[in-house]
Amino acid sequence: MEAMMTGMINNIFFIIFPIIIYQMLATAGQRNFFVSHRVTMTVLFSISIILCMLFPYQFLTDQYIFDLRQVPMIVGALYGGPLVSAVLFLVSSGGRFLIGGDGMYIAIFNQFVIAAGVPFLRPLYMRLKRFGKIVLVFCISIASLLFNMLAGAYFFGDPIHDIIGIWVMLIINQGTIIVLTALMIEHMQRQEYLYNSLLKHEKMETVSHFAAAVSHELRNPLQSIKGFIQLMKEYDYSREKQVEFHSLILKEINAAEDLIDDYLVYAKPTYGQLEPITVSTEVHHVLKIMAPYANGKDVKMQIGDMDETAEILVDRQKFQQALVNIIRNGVESMPDGGTLAIAAKSSPAKVWIEVTDEGVGMTKEEVQRLGEPYFSNKIKGTGLGMMVTYSIVSQMNGQIMVDSQKGKGTEFTLEFPNIATFEKK
């Protein structure tokens, strides 16, 4: 009994291991078990068949040696189709021929019937719901074992009433394993399908957020332009007033162009020549640019520890843009004023730029959503600035890390590869 259980467990393992390997290695979102990995899965099921045949087990009496090779054969034929079924038949019949012994030709003929007949049931199998698939695969297993029982009784003269109990147990044994195998595959495919649907939903949601942000942001300058044009059409303004209107219209057009450029940077970033820059030099330059804005908000900008030797390989203009966006966000997070500190550190492999504010801070959920389209802590914000910032840093081999506490401020850390790592390559 112990040997029988050990052999059965081994056979079950030989069947499920290719399915587990597939689940680990297959690309997420594949809806058909064999579609994208047909060759791999055929090889794995062939190995299962061979191992099941090499390690059979005695069932109830010493006269019956049994294995579960039919399980991968039937499952492979249903999910893989005629070509996969033919390959599995060649493997199983070749293995059975080498093993030899009584019943060899019956077993090979039975395998041929499975390989030739089961693929015709594949279209029906794929249309059925889960319960229908379970019933069909169980019936195929029963039919296959009944064929073996009747053929054995006919050729070897064993009375049916003497062996019916053994074969009923074999039917239950193999039927249970093949049903569990089919359920495992169906569950895995369902998870893959749901994951694929989730990815599509997220993409559509991103597109809808983009559409909402574009329409929201472009409507304001377009409404202004439309209003000025209508006024100039209906009233006869002086030349001086018309020039003023022209100037305002051009200003709104430039605002709309800047917005579109920002979206293009996020959607399809384009960079000029990457060049080595000294981080401290760029930080001082950006702080000079942002000083008037910070002073107007009663925010003091402070330079902390600054590694004067730290260098990175980036697009200078885009790097400045990303740093400006982060500093502006930090300033705007301190409506009552405060201090914004910036520092730069380096190691032989990495360079870190830290921007710390004393602003309102964020919750963990808000930090996780940073960089998403149309997410912003500002009342009239669209989140576009941080979207662009994350895109810029990511495309230049960097990453952004955020540490924030509600009411205690936020620290942004920009991490880039040290230029020394590029020189070594």
Automatic annotation (TrEMBL):
The answer to whether UniProt assigns keyword Hydrolase to this entry is no
Keyword line: ATP-binding, Cell membrane, Kinase, Membrane, Nucleotide-binding, Phosphoprotein, Transferase, Transmembrane, Transmembrane helix, Two-component regulatory system
Q: How does it sit in the membrane?
A: Multi-pass membrane protein
InterPro entries referenced in this protein's UniProt entry, alphabetically? HATPase_C_sf, HATPase_dom, His_kinase_dom, HisK_dim/P_dom, HisK_dim/P_sf, Sig_transdc_His_kin-like_C, Sig_transdc_His_kinase_LytS_TM
- What molecular function does GO assign, one term? kinase activity
Alphabetical list of SUPFAM superfamilies matching this protein: ATPase domain of HSP90 chaperone/DNA topoisomerase II/histidine kinase, Homodimeric domain of signal transducing histidine kinase
Query: Looking at the record's lineage, which domain of life comes first?
Result: Bacteria
Question: What is the designated name of this protein?
Answer: histidine kinase
Q: Which organism is it from?
A: Planococcus antarcticus DSM 14505
